Amino acid sequence: MNRRHFLGAGLGAWVSPSLAAPHDLKLTLLGQALIEHDVSLAAWPDRERVADRLAKADACFTNLETVILGSRAGAPTREALTLHAAGPEVLDTLKAMNVRLVATSNNHAFDLGSGGILDTLAALDAAGLATAGTGEDLARAAAPGFLQTPHGTVALVACATGKVREGGAATASRPGVNELRRGPDGHIAPADEARVLDALSDASQRADVVIAYQHNHDWEPDMAMVPPWQRRFAKRCAEAGASVFVGHGAPLLQGIEIHRGAPLFFGLGNFLFQTEKPPGSYPSEAWESVMVDCAFRKGRCRSARLVPITLNEIGTGGPNDTTTRGMPSLAGDARARSILKRVGTRSRPFGAHFSDSSKGYADLRL
């Protein structure tokens, strides 16, 4: 069992024990990380405040929307404007934010072919990050990743739906993504769903907290809306043993639901968004998100606090400066209330409610 699948308690040095309740495992869930540059403190004004906030968790979780460059990288599978690749130094930025658990299943994992997938996994392992969602073959792409924290073990089972390029899905003999496909009738392929649910069931026997992760690009016409088929799948994940469901893909916040005590965060938007597309290519709300501070006890989520953040669409050097754009800052009061109101509106049809947001954050009522 290598570091990709199990990381030791030595990582607890990143957590201040005085900030964690004796019996709670604290996990912060973040939006996706499209990161292509290791940004200095000077170019990221709110870096210290964000880092200090995230350091209170036992660990933080995100999806890595970037291929890490290495010697096995193949020819690009997409045009330069949407090619997401970077050197291994960007992982230092994630580690500085207390990110210790990373999903790699997404539509950009194959941007540099199968070799890029292998290089990314090797770099993540060398950096000491636990991962799930891609692998040397389908069995390893589908297998749970495990992270040991000072307050228990976290397991991650990750998959991706939609826009996985031809050749990017893992097979019994090919590296790739743990793909969850949908048939012409709109239903999830039974074999794919069974593979994910079986992995969650297995993980629930071996970990204190289990994250079910899906990177989804099979959006509704209004991408802020959660597809009914995804809601059904997320509930099955909770029934199979997931403590929490996390989704990315749509570059904005979607609604939240609770099923059998497990929060279902269908879309957490962006945490780092260093896109090279020109300003105005994405809706304004793509530059607003939340960090979710969760506390778990005996596998059950006891609390979930939504902390709004904003990302700078324009880099510090102007509209052509893509190196320093898309960096998170804690949202000011007015924008924080606006972000939380939007999440609340989108969650209300699912029966989820929040505490008063006048303090700049909101607690999910579990």
The largest β sheet comes out as: 8 strands, mixed
Q: How would you describe the shape?
A: globular
What is the rounded Rg?
19 Å
Strand content: 25-35%
- Secondary structure class reads alpha/beta
Number of E-type strands: 20
Poorly predicted runs are 1-20
Summed up, the domain count is 1
Separation, N- and C-terminal Cα atoms = 35 Å
The CATH topology annotation reads as Purple Acid Phosphatase, chain A, domain 2
CATH-defined architecture: 4-Layer Sandwich
Give the topology string: H per helix, E per strand: EEHEEEHEHEEHEEEHEHEEEEEEEHE
Estimated helix fraction: 10-25%
CATH class type: Alpha Beta
> How many H/I helical runs?
7
Structure description:
The protein is α/β, with parallel strands linked by helices. The chain has a single domain (9-19, 34-363), classed as 4-Layer Sandwich (Purple Acid Phosphatase, chain A, domain 2), CATH 3.60.21. Helix content is 21%, strand content 26%. It has seven helices and 20 strands. It has helices spanning 47-54, 90-96, 113-127, 138-142, 190-204, 228-240, 333-347, and strands at 25-29, 32-34, 59-63, 67-68, 85-86, 99-103, 130-132, 134-135, 145-149, 152-161, 176-177, 209-216, 244-248, 256-259, 262-265, 270-273, 288-297, 300-311, 328-330, 362-363. A hairpin with a 2-residue loop joins strand 17 (288-297) and strand 18 (300-311). Helix 5 packs parallel to helix 6 (228-240). The longest helix is centred in the N-terminal third of the chain and has 15 residues, at 113-127. The two termini are 35 Å apart.
